[in-house]
Design goal:
There is one protein chain. By secondary structure, the chain is an alpha/beta fold. It is 25% helix and 16% strand. The protein has a 5-stranded mixed beta sheet. It is globular, with a radius of gyration of 19 Å. The termini are far apart.
């Protein structure tokens, strides 16, 4: 099992080392601490997992500010969000939060195969996936995108 698959399969699970497993572990005490290799920080996926994952093609400073306003309207701080650019996740999908928003991103671009009905909650494994117009298109509000986004956010985050 690869690290990525294990991270995905056991994403929200507590994993314990049992007493019976301690005898089966390989420990090489002959290597001194200076020679030990540690994983590169880029290999460690979003620890700890944030409850909201957002995927964008690109995001400007103005769009980041707009995103913060959107989140604050539903009492979600930006610290609850992990924002990913599609080009940064082309090889491996990071761990997903419970709620996944694709702003101007087709699910196929991030290796998720679902029917992409915009502005609807799509169940995907243990996640709620929403395909939405890009942040810049929502800001322009040419086709009532802000009202549609507000409707889906109220549905997802109201008590």
């Amino acid at each position: 099992m690869t690290k990525q698959l294990a991270g995905y399969v056991f994403a929200n699970e507590a994993v314990f080392l049992l007493e019976s497993d301690k005898n089966n572990r390989f420990e090489d005490n002959s290597v001194n601490s200076a020679e030990k290799t540690y994983p590169d920080k880029s290999e460690i996926s979003n620890v700890p997992l944030k409850p909201i994952s957002i995927f964008v093609n690109d995001i400007s400073v103005e769009e980041t500010s707009f995103l913060e306003k959107i989140l604050s309207a539903v009492n979600q701080p930006i610290t609850n969000v992990s924002v990913h650019k599609v080009q940064d996740v082309s090889h491996s999908l990071p761990q997903l939060g419970k709620d996944v928003f694709l702003f101007g991103v087709n699910p196929n671009q991030i290796q998720i195969v679902v029917s992409s009905q915009p502005y609807t909650i799509i169940p995907y494994l243990t996640h709620r996936l929403v395909v939405i117009d890009s942040l810049s298109d929502i800001q322009k509000n040419l086709h009532d995108e802000k009202r549609r986004l507000w409707g889906i956010l109220k549905n997802m985050f109201s008590a």
